[in-house]
Design brief:
ten-stranded antiparallel beta barrel; 68% strand
């Protein structure tokens, strides 16, 4: 799995010259419902068109618990596409495969599926509601979550977008997360 992720990262970076490529930087404040501790997250995601209306992405999320200083890293590959568009509404679906590493523990492989609906409020402002299901590939590993995702994005320019997101995560590791992001399109 690590070799697949590394090869995909290299392939995506090589495709940065593509006209449909973007890089998103994110910062999140996370409150755990399980232990009451806070976590800070940073992320980087590179997306690029891969043909047939599909978009491939590769991302890394680094989390650090502010109480214990333990860290976890998620490396994920994804593929998404628009299912339908009707006026200001569009529906998308994304599938992903990833690897989670936590300080002092073995790495865990996982998959995710995320359908969502976007509503273009204005030419610059878009609202999104989505649901993400994520689970470990191996049975008996506690990494399952059901996430409700709410978001707003605002296009500052043709190439620059800021976003605000709010996630409500249930199951293993229940938490809420507020995320601010910046996307640069090329």
């Amino acid at each position: 799995m690590k070799k697949i992720i590394l090869a995909s990262i290299l392939a995506t970076m090589a495709g940065l010259a593509s006209a449909q490529t973007s890089v998103t930087l994110g910062a999140s404040a996370v409150e755990s419902d399980v232990n009451g501790q806070n976590t800070n997250r940073t992320s980087i995601t590179v997306r690029t068109g891969v043909g047939y209306g599909l978009v491939g992405d590769v991302g890394v999320i680094n989390s650090q618990n502010s109480t214990t200083n333990s860290t976890s890293v998620r490396q994920e590959l994804g593929l998404s596409g628009t299912v339908f568009t009707a006026g200001a509404f569009s529906a998308t679906v994304r599938g992903g495969l990833g690897l989670k590493t936590v300080s002092g523990k073995d790495a865990t492989s996982y998959y995710s599926v995320e359908p969502g609906v976007n509503y273009r409020v204005t030419d610059a402002l878009t609202a999104r509601v989505a649901y993400r299901f994520r689970d470990a590939v191996s049975s008996g590993v506690a990494d399952r979550s059901d996430t409700t995702r709410l978001g707003l994005s605002y296009a500052l320019t043709k190439n620059d977008t800021i976003g605000l997101g709010y996630d409500i995560v249930k199951k293993d590791g229940a938490e809420t997360a507020t995320t601010f992001s910046y996307t640069r399109s090329f």
